[in-house]
Amino acid sequence: MNRQPLFHPPVPDHAATWEGIDWQALVKVAAGSRERAYAPYSGFRVGAALLAPNGRIYGGCNVENRVLGLTLCAERGALSAAVVDGQTSFEALAIVTGATPPCAPCGQCRDALAEFTCDLPVVSVTAGDDEASNWSRFTLQNLLPEPFVLAVEKP
Ligand code: THU
After folding, report:
1. Which residue minimizes the CA distance to atom 7 of ligand 1?
2. In the predicted model, what is the mean pLDDT of residues 102-107?
């Protein structure tokens, strides 16, 4: 049987753009989501907000578990809320944590986000700091320049 490799690279979508995004609104949703964080084990509460092309913002918070490995990060919570609403590409991500300086998303979340959008502008904010000049800015492309590519064989 002639097995042809069928590659499913993350689609090289549009480059991350910072303009035209209401970052204050995204940070507000991320901060509100962080209030709902369930983080009794680490005490590190995280909120995330994802902007989809439909203009909606999807919030997520970290949800820990006594089986520590079951912990869900805020970013993947937001992703799940968006996907169940039919959204599979994204325009921006905001993260709010208690960390100073603001932190970048973890490796698992980088891969989870890159499944849908390779180059996403990301703003990370320390909770309570409204000063945009203190926000950290990343692009998913820079955080994860070589995403895992799944190659499956066509039967
Ligand atoms: N966490 C997130 O929600 N997002 C990240 O990108 C990194 C870590 C959560 C998981 C856990 O509940 C807590 O932060 C400490 O690792």
Report:
1. 106
2. 98
- By C-alpha distance, which of 57, 45, 51, 62 is closest to 126? 45
Atom 3 in ligand 1: residue holding the nearest Cα: 73
**CA–CA distance, 57 with 50 (Å, rounded to integer):** 5
Spatial separation of the C-alpha atoms in residues 94 and 3, rounded to whole Å: 42
Question: Distance from the CA of 150 to the center of ligand 1, in angstroms?
Answer: 25
Percent of the residues in the chain that have a pLDDT greater than 90, as a whole number: 81
pTM of the model: 0.91
Q: What's residue 143's pLDDT?
A: 97
pLDDT at 98: 98
What's the distance, CA 99 to chain centroid? 17
Task: Choose the catalytic residue: 75, 115, 131, 153.
Answer: 75
- Helices and strands (DSSP H and E) totals, the chain: 4, 7
Q: Please report the DSSP string for 108-128 in residue order.
A: HHHHHHHTT-SS-EEEEEETT
The residue type found at 65 is N
Atom of ligand 1 nearest to the CA of 39: 12
